[in-house]
Amino acid sequence: MSSQTRHVAFFLPTFPAGGQEQTTLLLMKGLVERGHRVDLLLERKTGAYLSRVPDTIRVHELRRRSRWSGYRRFITGWPSEGFRHLYGSLGLGQRSIPLHRLIALVDYMESQRPDVVISAHDRAPLLAVWAAGIARQRVATVIIERSIFSRNFAASRADARTHKIMQHRLTLMRRLYPMADMRVAVSNGAAADLADILGLPRSAVRTMYNPVVRPELTARAAEFVDDRWIHNDDVPLIVTAGRLAPEKAQHVLVDAFARLRARGVDARLAILGEGPERERLTHRIAEHGLEAHVRMPGWAENPYAWMARSSLCVLPSEFEGLPNTLIEAMACGCPVVATDCPGGTREILADGAHGRLVPVGDSDALAEAMALTLANPPSPAELQARAAKFSLERSVDAYEAEIERLCTRPPDRHA
After folding, report:
1. CATH class for the region spanning 7-210+392-408
2. Which of 92, 133, 140, 241 has its CB 3.0 to 4.6 Å from that of 406, i.e. a possible disulfide?
């Protein structure tokens, strides 16, 4: 535990319901409980998870400023970046950022004087590094990468406009991320990927696991959920949870589930989550004639109750930063099967010691692993012991130690 109280700001674009916001909320609460002053700083004060932020955490919204009022400070404080942006505004290049947001962030840093700004997602880390380079108040910057950027970049090629945006972001990341005080990824796989795309040594990116297992998870897993599927013990229930998106590959799970039933295994499948793939999945389920055996109830307020009453949790993703779903299922004593995808899945399962790993996109192998696990599941105690390695306490310990290190080391920033 730190011997000093520090002022830490978490900077995100907005605060919707999602895994990243859940992780941020847990970290903020954990640091507050240890006596630190914590702010949630948002570009726009909106999002479903704002209602979950306790009064002990101050929520700030960046005040809107005239973008032209910021050029003098941007060019004076960071000439190379300031002139690049000015040329873009004059139509001589590509604009990097909304300048009024940048100057509002500088205002926040100088008026509120946080010791550390931790940023994640979209342009927030870029804005944080720029603002820290301009502000008269020294602020340490920490960037968190929660996914596998190279895979997101590759997927963007499907749309020319999206790919152009991602190309520009990658250019900025390579220019600015090395200037941050600390770069964090949520798994060794994600850290290696980030270091590779930035052209940095692997040691330049620190692995720090998400806070996943916490006391309330166990309590919530025991809660009653009014759904007949949960309380039907006659047929095994298989569950998956996550956004219905192409990279989550729930369609592969549907195919594998059809193969599982074709082998004579009587089971049901619940796909928890919402997203753009709902229609495609609905059609896939109908093609296999599985309407009576597969449900998609949407986003679940309490997925832990589903996991605790399921015989198996499956993660069919194409890539993952650190899939909290696997850890949460194991913490609930639910056996797991997952694809051996880029990211943190293999780390969680300790190279398959705590759950079977199958090749990405292989529905036959996935069906086989599901059948074997249902027939011979590991003990809940073994799964829960492994999940405990990803506890809230361990994560807060790690962040608190790094925050203290950043607050006490000499400045090392380049304009």
Report:
1. alpha beta
2. 140
